[in-house]
Structures
1.
Amino acid sequence: MARSADSLPVTRAGAAIVVVTVLAAVIGPAIVGVDPAFQDLPLRLEGPSPAHWLGLDELGRDIFARLLVGARISLLVGAVVVGTSATIGTLLGSIAGYYGGIVDDVVSRVSDILMAFPGLLLAIAVVAVLGPSLTNVVLALTLIGWVSYARLIRGQVLRVRELEYVQAARALGAATPRILARHIVPATLPALIVQATLGMGGAILAEASLSFLGLGVQPPTPSWGTMLNYGRSHLLDAPHLTIFPGLAIAVLVLGFNFLGDGLRDALDPTMSQGRRG
Amino acid sequence: MLRFVARRVALTIPVLLGVATLVFLLIHLIPGDPAQAMLGEAAPQADVDALRAQLKLDRPLLEQYVNFLGALLRGDLGTSLRTRTSVTAQIAERIPATFELAFAAMFVAMMVAVPLGIAAAAWRGSFVDHAAMAVAMGGMAIPNFWLGPLLAIVFAVELGWLPVSGRGGIDHLVLPAVSLGLALAAMLARMTRASLLEELREPYVRAARARGISRARAVIAHAFRNSLIPVVTILGLQFGAVLTGTVITETIFSWPGIGRLLIQSIGFRDYPLVQGCILLIAVTYVAVNLLTDLAYGWLDPRIRYQ
């Protein structure tokens, strides 16, 4: 039996983390009022203090202010990658699942090939040739991201299209695009929402990984991954440069994972087997 | 079983061809003139022309593709632009380091995940279960590019117990293997718990309990062995994630493997080497997935007839 998402404390904790991060990203920089690009060079690498809660980085910039702006990048990349991947994946997955035949073969083979590359590797490859930038990170992550949505939706459509209400719509003469848009895709929404929530965490982690490797967002734009990358060279003298951006990534990803897990239990109990006993 | 093996191997061939095609096309995704991009904007035109001719980029695309596939079949991945040595030789030199790290990480993952998963399942719903699963959830969210430096701060810098970077004895392997293996451990712990709980519901376990066997013995001696099948499968399927993780872990700990070579070659715009590293990682991933599939079919005969 499905449980409501908000009945689980971890789901609530996840939702709280996400909401607080979104608020911090949207209104935080205005409230804090510190310029994330301002360099106080004499105080560079200074640790946390009442004036600078999380300390200053290698150029004397306020780490807290940079984390707030960095949250915008993380959330933006997550939202664009998940939004685009889910749209492309839903479109291709529903067409492949509904029509079968050659369309299904082509989508399945292309996704087989893309799935043959482990996780981030293809994104690294694409960014390596296109050059490091925020746009190319989004492009690379979308290129690998749509596959899991297409597979999920294809499976769901194969299940739903044989249900009686869909056959009834077909018998009543409804056009295929209408059947897909009005009857089939809405039935796949719970699974899609769960996948998208968990996908947000994955996309944020992937962007941070690419930026950490120097292949993502380029300085001076503050991205959590880039901040970690630069903090690495000050591991011995200023560990706070490494600790806070990493903590921010871990907490936000955890938030989306908690929320996704909770939604899975609430919206799609069949998928929660194996997660909970 | 032979038919099952033949079918699975046959299904892998088009995937491998697709992987090779995508890796071949990578170089053609470079905006503008690939030869100019590899040498930099300031390179003299004569050098650019020479490189274009060397890489046969001036030949028709189809001819380039056929040549690329032909060279691949001979194990020839081209020549590095920077060192002028064979890409295959450079990669072969780095393979042992990467595999050492990957297997050590998987060993760490199993050593952490199995006891954690068993404890969580055996004391289901208790504090132990919640704590183990919270640790697992945290482990999945912590990026290895954060965990690695944190472990280095504590165990190499503050305590001085372990070396901070490089490859050498087993002490050099500990920090990279732990930082790479912990995320996998988190996932495996959840899988072990779920799989064990499923087995515990089976009639043979209930029968064992009815015969007076203690719950601990029922878990360890009866249910655990069967619950391992999906766990080992996931371990095999996650080998790809571990391989990708080595790219980051090797960069953090200056581990001389393929992942670090890949990132270095991207920095030098040494695209033949980039192609070689990506191809090797992807092909290894496909091969391990195939072996996992075959092992699963061998362990569970029902799979062979699906």
2.
Amino acid sequence: MRLTTKFTLWYFGIMLVVLLIGGAIVYYEIQWKISRVEVVRHQRLNDIIALQIREGGDYTAHPTRKRAAITLISQDSFPAGAASFYTRGTGWNPEFQSNEYKLVVTSFYTINGSHYRIMTYSFIPSFYQLLPGVVDSFKWILLLLLVLVVISGGLISKYILAPFKRTMRMIQSFDLKQKGSIHLPRTRTSEFRELNEFLTKMTDKAREDYQSLKEFTENASHELQTPTAIIRGKLDLLMESDIRDEQAILIAEMQNALERLSRIHSSLTLLTKLENQEYEAKEPVCISRLMREALNAFGELMEMKSLTVQTEIEDQVYVPLHASLADLLLSNLVSNAIRHNAPNMVAAAGIEPTAGQGMIFVSLNHEGLVIANTGREPQIPTAELFERFKKGNPGSDSIGIGLAIVRQICDLSHFDIIYEFSSGLHIVAISFQPRLSASKLLQNLSLPLQSTLQP
Amino acid sequence: MKVLIIEDNQELARNIHDFLGREGYICETSETLEGAKEKLGFFQYDCILLDIGLPDGNGISLLNLIRAEHKESNVLIISAKNALDDKIIGLEKGADDYITKPFHLAELHARIRAVYRRKNLGGASIVEFNEISLNTDTFEARINDTLLDTTPKEFDLLLYFLVNKNRVLSRQAIAAHLWGDYTDNLANFDFVYQHVKNLRRKISGAGGMDYISTVYGLGYKFNSHKQE
């Protein structure tokens, strides 16, 4: 819910409460005031009648006596305290032939030694008759207020929150990689000023940290790669000198270790770079084309291992991914599928095995990518294969970082990825759609995939 | 061929110097940007190997000078930073190729030759040795006049051998050359073995001499002095 809407609703709620209480107050106030005025009028009337009695004379036809009752009372029933009181209640109005609200004011006088009780009455508007009027007027007031609050809320919040919105826009467009610090708009609101100061400080810190991390990565890469390059060069030169067989073996072993070292190093550097989000997808890349290229690049290897490849590649599938990353992702997956391929395992699923052949299945469409290959059952849970230096087969000479890179790329691009082993098939599924889970993708695809296994 | 090696690491520079020296290249080294500028002011080079991270500045800045005054020179950037930016900027500024440390010296040599072929030999991109001739434009390999049915990788491999004749090529170097970055996951040198085996079989099949021999424990060698 937007801030303005929230404020408006709260104001409206408060207004409603205030108006309800106010309505009650107004209602009772009017009610009291009407009675009060009437009572005072009647007291005056009673006084006039008392005066007339004191003066003597015939006033029976006088207009003052129209609704007056004068009673001579005894000393005992004459009240000691108040000289006057009033009562209210419904009474029959003969003039209008209806029950109406009746106010009776009774006053007591002692005139020439006699005690008089003078009662006058009149019919006043009932409070129940007033209520609709009160409610009505408050309804209009409420409506008016609501309209005003909504309009002014919109306008005022637009004006007051403008600096906040500008700050938000700036923050949204903030990029860790940008050179200068962010310039937030100046504002006179102290809270926003504080917020801006805080944000500027925080983003500056983040930028600095990012920068130093990046520098460290690059420096580490530089400083380690150079000595590695020197050793490698020296070994290359040493190989060509006159050496004995056992020396050759030693050199070969050093070469192997060096190869591993440099591969681990460059993979870790790559992972760090991925984590630093240094590869931004500038424009969508056609992954169909890259997939075909990757399969082509590995074509000879597949042939050597006598692998059968089955593909269902949709044309023109574009995904938001840096081209180098897309390339890396696909080649890692395809080379994994080749490396860890072992034939004949499809038989476990109860399907006719293609005589002694390993297979690779590739299915690519706009929803996602599924790569499956025949292979041995992994020794560890498949989900753990995404971790660094975890290998399904501990004896293999891979360094176990390829899938970690694959997952990192997927995480960066918000692709869901899963790794499953079932029916003798290693299956990696990647969903390109943010709302589509990779396992769902697999469900949709597992059927055609299984059927391709049928001879 | 005259080569200028601009590299601040003496050991690395010496490696390159020694390796290329054996090919009969005349190599000079410079450890600094200033020294390189001086040398470039006096001499012409066929090939310039340029390290990006130099003590007195970024090697990229030298590219402008090279491109302005040494149009004929080939420039190969050597960088430890496998940073994409460097690669793109370097190539945009007129470098001819880019190689990342740690590289195999044979690979560097192959790159130098490739760039040289591309630029200096015009359209005639034929690499020949005795009865073997490779056309790097059409990717056709011939033994005498018989066309060899090679796969792209086998062609690449043969070219690599021809450029690095009489050198021991380790399996790692061959794998790195054939598959580049992809070797990350393909440490399995069986593939190298397979490719070499197929290549030798094809050459012999077409009547060529089997120049390629196995070097015990290390890898392979193209032996140009081999006689029947």
